[in-house]
Amino acid sequence: xxxxxxxxxxxxxxxxxxxxxxxxxxxxxxxxxxxxxxxxxxxxxxxxxxxxxxxxxxxxxxxxxxxxxxxxxxxxxxxxxxxxxxxxxxxxxxxxxxxxxxxxxxxxxxxxxxxxxxxxxxxxxxxxxxxxxxxxxxxxxxxxxxxxxxxxxxxxxxxxxxxxxxxxxxxxxxxxxxxxxxxxxxxxxxxxxxxxxxxxxxxxxxxxxxxxxxxxxxxxxxxxxxxxxxxxxxxxxxxxxxxxxxxxxxxxxxxxxxxxxxxxxxxxxxxxxxxxxxxxxxxxxxxxxxxxxxxxxxxxxxxxxxxxxxxxxxxxxxxxxxxxxxxxxxxxxxxxxxxxxxxxxxxxxxxxxxxxxxxxxxxxxxxxxxxxxxxxxxxxxxxxxxxxxxxxxxxxxxxxxxxxxxxxxxxxxxxxxxxxxxxxxxxxxxxxxxxxxxxxxxxxxxxxxxxxxxxxxxxxxxxxxxxxxxxxxxxxxxxxxxxxxxxxxxxxxxxxxxxxxxxxxxxx
Amino acid sequence: xxxxxxxxxxxxxxxxxxxxxxxxxxxxxxxxxxxxxxxxxxxxxxxxxxxxxxxxxxxxxxxxxxxxxxxxxxxxxxxxxxxxxxxxxxxxxxxxxxxxxxxxxxxxxxxxxxxxxxxxxxxxxxxxxxxxxxxxxxxxxxxxxxxxxxxxxxxxxxxxxxxxxxxxxxxxxxxxxxxxxxxxxxxxxxxxxxxxxxxxxxxxxxxxxxxxxxxxxxxxxxxxxxxxxxxxxxxxxxxxxxxxxxxxxxxxxxxxxxxxxxxxxxxxxxxxxxxxxxxxxxxxxxxxxxxxxxxxxxxxxxxxxxxxxxxxxxxxxxxxxxxxxxxxxxxxxxxxxxxxxxxxxxxxxxxxxxxxxxxxxxxxxxxxxxxxxxxxxxxxxxxxxxxxxxxxxxxxxxxxxxxxxxxxxxxxxxxxxxxxxxx
Lengths: 508, 423
Hints:
Chain A is an all-beta fold. Chain A folds into two domains: about 15-285, Beta Barrel (Thrombin, subunit H); about 285-505. Chain A is built from two helices and 42 strands. In chain A, the strands form five sheets. In chain A, strands 20, 22, 24, 26, 28, 29, 31, 32, 34, 35, 38, 39 and 41 form a 13-stranded parallel beta sheet that branches. In chain A, strand 3 and strand 4 form a beta hairpin. Chain A is globular. In chain B, the strands form four sheets. A twelve-stranded antiparallel β-barrel of chain B has the order 3-4-5-6-7-8-10-14-15-19-20-21. In chain B, a hairpin with a 4-residue loop joins strand 9 and strand 10. In chain B, about 15% of the residues lie in helices and about 55% in strands. At the A-B interface, strand 40 and strand 41 of A face strand 1, strand 2 and helix 2 of B. Strand 41 (about 470-475) of chain A pairs antiparallel with strand 2 of chain B, so a sheet runs across the interface.
């Protein structure tokens, strides 16, 4: 394995310094590198004593920032040296380190910071959640996937990278790269934990540093991380090319650890960036009782039953309503939340007919089941897993976007065939499924008012023998394809949806 | 999962379709009948028709189960109607005309029997026999004996072997029975005309529980014979009306029946010439017999709503038969009050007969028509008969006769009993 060799191993953080290292074709001060406004949800972590920046973090909910655990430790002594941080204009000591973290080791290098006040005026990206409580916990984003890296760390270029001490101007910078690997690491307490890896390649010489044998050429904005980027995010776009996603449509999949030196210069070309996957820590985050993250109790409850929620408070407009435990929550009144997350394999959320839930930032379905018979009003429904059922409507301001990367969209209800309507656009990735039942002359149907970009699998469930020649399983007013790049469209459609069958008894 | 469909995902600018192509039975080799049914269903579906759920259930079947179900759907039972219908008319014509049945105006020449008015033409041997046995010669029928009345009962059964492997037709068992009465009038010496009325019925069934049918029949006929010395010419016409019904069980226990009226029209012309020998009479003969069996357009009634009822178009089936053969007779004397004649026949018959093929349509699938073939009837048969006639001095004649028709894949056994009184 790439990381098992004699490569120099260097942490890219801790010292109160700062950002992204860009390839030689760009100046670190290029407007396309210095991020003025694309990622306001990426925050700098500052020492309250010196006001110096020392790490980067990402707002994952109105009151929670995720960063790296090692940011709070002295790289030399490995002692906890930071207990209070200034972030987003607020000061807090509510810091939780991931369980099993051993200072300066790679595994579990993740921490969450709770803010005293909600930050609601910035767009937030979705967070990759694990498929908790059943099903495969890890469904990593595949190699070659383009990703953004963002941070406040030291700046430089591939040939002339910064040192751990600088330079740093406190600017937030962004770069792009591609996932090169998803590989296990170990520590004294954690035998094996996977991390995302990506090598800083030279666009002018793509194969000079291509230890992961990627076929994707290095992107124009190819870059790497350096000191100060620690704790920062890496984002991917569920639709593939990064320019197909706005910030609220991106998904954070990792937290920056640092680099492994593979190149001639630390932080320069050839070094391999390391990210802890957020999906592996979602279970733990949900268990912390963080402010503004309301986790549903185990059992079957109506939404407005105080017992339905762990701390007795019904989720409000600045809260994340999070279903992790075994059970079901049924909406019994119209409600509004910041976001709705479902990540438990035995978790179910039901919006009955004639009721609506507004999830103003996003809805995140990683596992379990979401039944929309009424209206779900959310700008972005991200499905890394789970099952979406119902005969209702998903809409959003100006239209929603449903990105089914690894889940199952199965219109209809358990008791009847039905049509699920997406008022907006629908994307189905190579691992996504559209599942419809056919019964005689009727069938489940997905109706999209915008465009449908389709990959993955069409699963048909024959409740009885087909009685007619043609069944319309999906209709898109805005047409098929087109949402994504032409290349993806042209490669998707000749083979398009693969077809597979499922016995009726396994309808889910 | 879907053994009898192929499917594909298809698209247009705005829609994703799942398209199915029916391929019922295409994965294996089916007999023609089953294949024809499958093809009609496939064509109906693939042309955009909507199947009923009953037909949908067929698509889960494979192999022998599918083949059996398709056989049941084919309505082959209806093809069996013509066999006993032809058989019944054949027997009726035979009873009216068969010169075996003596006394109908001294068929074959009174010389053969000795009761002929042409008493002077009795052969010496016969005359001697009468002289020995009878106290006095039986009163010869005088020309004044213009009338005779007769009654007969008849019945028969046929078994025709189907071809279950290639055609998918099944063994057919058909039977007939009837009773008839007639009246003769002698116009002139050697010329007799008559008519007969009959009531009877048919019954048929197919092997493997594929159903069958039956009919109540009314028959009417006219006949006439003319002879000149040892030569004779005979002709008969017959009409039959069948009150017919069919009954069968289709796939999934669907009980289907139909009732309709069918008609048969038939005619027979026969001519022969008798040679007297020491052992008896030998009469080479030739006959032509033609029949039409008409069934109307009719529809099956679906008794339990299974959805597989068929509709049938009207149809005329024909059977033209030629016969070449010989008749034998030998007189035995029993006592002064009675005479017994033994008779036999051997002939070759060739039938130009309609194949029992129908083109039904599924009532619930408009346009879904197909061809179903019944067991192929015999084209060449050996006809054999054996009979005995007992003539009593009081003018009563009793006759019993047994017939057999033997062909490749088909055999028929029939029997007739007749009583005649002449005055």
